[in-house]
Predict the structure of Short-subunit dehydrogenase-like oxidoreductase (DUF2520 family).
Amino acid sequence: MKVGIIGAGRVGAVLGAALARSGHALVAAVAVSAASKARAAALLPEARLLPADHVAAAADLLILAVPDDALGGLVAGLADLGAIRPGQIVAHTSGAHGLAVLAPVAAAGAFPLALHPAMTFTGTAADLDRLAAGISFGVTAPDELRPFAARLVSDLGGVVEWVEEQKRPLYHAALAHGANHLATLVAEAMDRLRDAGVHQPERVLAPLLGAALDNTLRMGDAAITGPVSRGDAGTVRKHLQALDAVAPGSVPPYLALARRTADRVIAAGRLRPQDAAPLLDVLSASEKEPVT
Ligand SMILES: NC(=O)c1ccc[n+]([C@@H]2O[C@H](COP(=O)([O-])OP(=O)(O)OC[C@H]3O[C@@H](n4cnc5c(N)ncnc54)[C@H](OP(=O)(O)O)[C@@H]3O)[C@@H](O)[C@H]2O)c1
């Protein structure tokens, strides 16, 4: 297919390069900033750099890889300019948006496709290897476009997860909660270890967190360990006091996650409610007033 990319950003440049690698003809791309031009030169050398409406006109498959908030305006602009033709496929790469944002191009006769690569991109060739290893794509597509979408994802070396239109925000919330908040949690843990005088926090954490992630992906709640899972109220109280002394901002997220952890281990039958009572009292007391 003739592929056009609007937005040679981190995702657009890499998906374009991956499609070219799998035999599609990458005909044109939009790159305005110096960073996007550099990415296009490195990853999309065969593509002509053109204005958005010219890229749209040149492509059978048009990929819109722009910031989420820019997508609606871009789609409306392309439709208003008459840059979209019937039968063309217009895909975006946003996780939060589904097909609704593509309504103006669908009204012009194009097939809409929401194609979200569930990966974090750097916009460099290193991403191509991660793609080739086989990531999942959260895909929302009209029924008649599903076979095409499945083939496209397969060309990218990936696996399809069909996501219903109305479930798209929930799908994206789950990914952000897992990946983005995990990064915040790890950065916080490294900071608190530094506060504790640890010189190489990343070295201390790497095997511990690697095992926790691996075990949880395989075993779910059964992988949860630590004082909350054992109902060790005294240890959790000491944690809260230590955190409050050096980093009070870490107390509310610790409390929220400890409470959620307790709920999950109790629901999973790992901790009996009567054994959890002292721990839950510590958490409730700390939620109501500062730790002492
Ligand atoms: N980054 C990730 O890890 C990741 C993963 C999965 C999905 N996504 C999704 O993929 C999409 C693109 O993300 P990204 O990380 O690739 O963004 P990015 O690196 O910031 O690149 C955005 C691209 O969009 C262009 N652009 C910005 N505003 C525009 C507008 N109003 N009209 C037309 N083009 C515009 C930029 O062009 P210039 O630089 O030339 O100005 C740039 O090439 C988003 O929907 C995002 O949610 C991102």
